[in-house]
């Protein structure tokens, strides 16, 4: 490389620095980025097409892991079911023993829901023995509590709505929290940040006045929370909502 | 006629550089782009070789968010170090590879590229492509590495 070329290169650098200092390059940059955006788009779609085999392998691997987890959970559930069957039989026997003593254990009233978005209610009231704070269940799953009782109908306070009387709940692994609603979803709130919540776990009631212990509420779905918050919140999925139910139980 | 031909070739090469940099912007590091700029600069004997440097610097700056003068300094440093670095690193292959890798790492640091698995994967693939390009163009054709020209596989030794 000759000295002339070296000087030329240095002059180019000086010229570039000067143009940059004056600010001419910023306009060029803006314009060039505008033109380059569709080219980037073409390249992104090209890369995505090239990546299809890789993505397929990664996807298959994840699915395989997911299936393995599902299998282990299924086996665990089966073992729990057999245990539950045993308990149910035991329970029936105990119930028979107690009923033979002419004792009434529990009242259960079955009713159809009165669906109104502003006023969820059930078609049973004080005449049927319904009381405030009674549980409203759909297929054994807690969907709300009785808020106000009239003669022939009762207003239901749904779990998905903001509630004044909070329900204490816990997950299968024993993590405790408070059930609240944001108007749309049922939430498990006030869970300390240092505790790990597991996706798909069942959420059940801890038991308090008016709410039986171990009543099923839903399954857990972890949501991203604000990391600066001291507590975390998760959505509780209810497979059947109040609005989907054909019949409801009031206990 | 020759002037028009040269101009046409230059435009095609610049378009190629633009396509390569926009592709590498999507996948990660400008490995092949830097190699191509170096090859175009070293291979061309006429005035157009400076156009590759100037436009190359502009493309690099636009795609990777660097300052124009800084990217020009980087490319000028690369060509000068390749030309004059023989006293420090005698082997031409080692010198070119070391300078290109250093430049890429510098660009990655300055433009804050995240070293994800995909970026590293492309880095490895583009390294192989770069070596093939260098073997087929710069070292083979231009004879920068007098020692390996004519021998088949001692590049990987």
Short description:
The complex is a heterodimer of chains A (251) and B (157). Chain A is 38% helix and 25% strand.
Description:
The complex is a heterodimer of chains A (251) and B (157). Chain A is built from 3 helices and 13 strands. Chain A has 251 residues and is α+β, with helices and mostly antiparallel strands. In chain A, the strands form 2 sheets. In chain A, strands 1-13-4-5-6-3-2 form a 7-stranded antiparallel β-sheet, with no helix packed on it. The longest helix of chain A has 48 residues, at 52-99. The mean pLDDT of chain A is 83. Chain B is built from 6 helices and no strands. Chain B is globular. Residues 146-157 of chain B have low confidence and may be disordered. The interface between A and B is medium-sized, with 22 and 25 residues.
Q: What radius of gyration of chain B results from the CA coordinates?
A: 15 Å
Shape of chain A: elongated
Low-confidence stretches of chain A: none
Annotation, overall tally of beta strands of chain B: 0
- Rg over alpha carbons of chain A: 31 Å
Helix fraction bin of chain A: 25-40%
Q: Oligomerization state of this entry? A: heterodimer
Number of helices in the DSSP assignment of chain A = 3
| Overall average pLDDT of chain A | 83
Pattern of helices and strands of chain B: HHHHHH
Count of individual beta strands of chain A:
13
Topology:
The complex is a heterodimer of chains A (251) and B (157).
Chain A: H1 3-22, H2 24-50, H3 52-99, E1 109-111, E2 113-114, E3 121-122, E4 135-138, E5 141-149, E6 154-158, E7 167-171, E8 176-181, E9 186-192, E10 202-205, E11 216-222, E12 231-237, E13 248-250
Chain B: H1 2-27, H2 31-43, H3 48-64, H4 68-84, H5 92-110, H6 117-142
Helix pairs in contact in B: 1-2, 1-3, 2-3, 2-6, 3-4, 4-5
List keywords for this structure.
heterodimer; A: 251 residues; alpha+beta; seven-stranded antiparallel sheet; six-stranded antiparallel beta barrel; 25% strand; elongated; B: 157 residues; mainly alpha; 6 helices; 75% helix; disordered C terminus
